[in-house]
Amino acid sequence: MDSGIQERLTDFIRRKGLRQTRQRDTIVSAAFSKDELFSADELFERARKLDSKTSRATVYRTLSLMVEANLLREIDLGDNQATYDPKFAVKPSHNHLACIDCGRVVEFEDSHLELLNDCVTRRMGFKPVQQSVRIEANCEQLRLKGRCPNLIATRLTGRRLRKKR
Amino acid sequence: MDSGIQERLTDFIRRKGLRQTRQRDTIVSAAFSKDELFSADELFERARKLDSKTSRATVYRTLSLMVEANLLREIDLGDNQATYDPKFAVKPSHNHLACIDCGRVVEFEDSHLELLNDCVTRRMGFKPVQQSVRIEANCEQLRLKGRCPNLIATRLTGRRLRKKR
DNA sequence: CTGATTGCAAATGCTTTGCACGCCA
DNA sequence: TGGCGTGCAAAGCATTTGCAATCAG
What we know:
The structure is a homodimer.
Chain A: H1 3-15, H2 22-31, E1 38-39, H3 40-50, H4 56-68, E2 73-76, E3 82-85, E4 95-99, E5 104-108, H5 111-123, E6 126-139, H6 142-145, E7 156-160
Parallel strand pairs in A: 4-6
Antiparallel strand pairs in A: 1-3, 2-3, 4-5, 5-7
The structure holds a DNA duplex.
């Protein structure tokens, strides 16, 4: 895990007059141990491997903290839970495409898209703060190969889109 | 309410071998009685004014039906409930900007944005199905006038962004 | 008739909270 | 030492579901 992250949270904690605790350290390091998207529950499980006494409540509370500190981005993938993106700290603007066929989530970045969103926003008299683009799509090659082949490692989060309830 | 809507749902119901009921008619007409965004609960309240015996369960079930029939679009505004957009039936591609200052939701359309999203999607080997852009922004003129003045009637949904729990 | 639909209440699943105890600064 | 932080269980909330009664075709 990037030690800069731990540091940035520590700064944030100091600035806010909060306290650095063993539990927070554990949860933060669990959050940034991989660069895959994760859910609150997945983070809870990871943190429990580091410290079996970790409680769900503290995970949720620390998650809010990390989001507030801009270390983590909370995104909505259309399932019924929040998804957290640890790569946000490193690469602030990227968006997500969910493949309807295989349920995989593909991250992408496009500076034109970002720029255009900003223009549109300003044209309406607003100052852009955050934009999120979510695309649902079918795999074009599905028919050809019979399976969804868009499994390019670098573009994958390794995470399945959970179904709606 | 646009009578074409009722008709389109009737067709859908026939095609699926379902049944047309008094409750469904009531809920559908409540849904399209205004062209503002609404939540399940807001629809429930509206429907109860037409028929006080309307039940929440039937509202939810009919909502799914309308979404499946492509009469309604389900969008996520970052509060903790689904928002439904009745204008989708008429104007399929528009997106939403939520003003952080006043909480208002502004709808907008931009064909460039749409086109660019499609390109990006295809470039990654997918066939676009649906895209949603959600922008959070500050009101640029807030400081000048002291209040969020972007209350241009035609662009407003009249709906406040509900806070996160 | 007969299976789709409804209404109610109970169940779900994620997330938040109240409160007593514990621990950081 | 004074509070902030933690853990647990309970509460909250939007949404879904089981089931018996009802109704559309």
